[in-house]
Amino acid sequence: MRFDEAYSGKVFIMSHPVVEESKAILYGMPMDWTVSFRPGSRFGPNRIREASLGLEEYSPYLDKHLEEVPYYDAGDIPLPFGNPARSLEMIKDYVRKIIAMDKFPLGMGGEHLVTWPIVQAMYEKYADMAFIHIDAHADLREEYEGEPLSHSTPVRKICDLIGPENVYSFGTRSGMREEFQYAATSGMHMAKYEVLKPLKTVLPQLAGRNVYVTIDIDVLDPAYAPGTGTAEAGGISSKELLAAIHELARADINIVGADLVEVAPAYDPTEQTQIAASKFIREMLLGWVK
Which residues participate in Mn(2+) binding (predicted)? Predict the structure, then answer.
């Protein structure tokens, strides 16, 4: 896995050709080995790249152009099919290399379990890190049908690693009773159903801190993003998620890395899910990479 030669596959719009001159590295994690309902998120990264070709390079929201934030699309990590343990180790090693280069890591999933090894790598450098989790699902299970490596477990693992008091979940509207009980008693912060309003309330508490952000596309209502493995009715709009991304960009926090996961293109023949995801990625690059 090298960053010193151009990726020969599809690239996100206006990817910079030279990694050394880039401020951020965009990378894909094509893994859906542990999904509990519908597979297919391993195809998400490349379809998001394809959809990005329909974007403008300029954001009227932020009054910024992608030429102002050079980033390098490193392509997808070549993960071994069906081997979650090895895949997670490869992701962790990959992100360590990005951090060592002092670049902003922006990942595209893939299932949500891929966030776990990223946070492990980030925590090695940022021991004071807070974690913002925007998702329909709590992801607080310790295991799923006896398997601890599951896309329903990453946030619980992250709570155990960095402390639940440093974990902030928004938009949560699905999970086991035990997951919501854990959230209520552990000291973590969970805002059910909504994102923007509670996010505005919480961000002043995180002033000056290093923060990692993960976005699961299924936080959106299926009307806005049907192309995901475990869709949940009652979600937010694309407009609200964009507003949340911009709120994070304006906040007095230091976003040190991020990912967007769970785009499963096969379930959306209209392609609106990957079109929306590509716009979110653009706004994350323009707003969060300093």
Answer: 112, 135, 137, 139, 216, 218
Structural domains in the chain? 19-288 (3.40.800.10)
Burial 28-51 (b: 16+ CB within 10 A, else e): bbbbbbbbbeeebbbbbbbbbbbb
DSSP 55-96: S-SEETTTTEEGGGS-EEEEEE--PPTT-HHHHHHHHHHHHH
Distance CA 231, CA 219 (A): 8
- What local confidence, expressed as pLDDT, does residue 236 receive? 98
Residue 32 annotated as binding site: no
Q: How far apart are CA 172 and CA 194, in angstroms?
A: 8
Q: Considering the entire predicted model, what is its pTM?
A: 0.96
76 labelled as ligand-binding?
Answer: no
CA distance 142 to 201: 29
Q: Where are the beta strands (DSSP E) in the chain?
A: 24-29, 58-59, 64-65, 71-76, 104-109, 130-134, 167-172, 189-192, 210-216, 254-261
The region, left, alpha or beta by phi > 0 then psi within -120 to 50, assigned to residue 98 is alpha
Alpha-carbon distance of 167 to 84, in angstroms, equals: 24
Is the distance from CB of 190 to CB of 138 less than 8 angstroms?
yes
- Span 246-267, average pLDDT: 98
β partners of residue 250: none
CB 151 within 8 A of CB 160: no
- 252 annotated ligand binder: no
Mean pLDDT calculated for residue range 56-76: 97
Question: Phi, psi at residue 167, to the nearest 5°?
Answer: -110, 130
Average pLDDT on 31-38 reads 89
Q: Is 16 annotated as a binding residue?
A: no
Say whether 112 counts as a known binding-site residue. yes
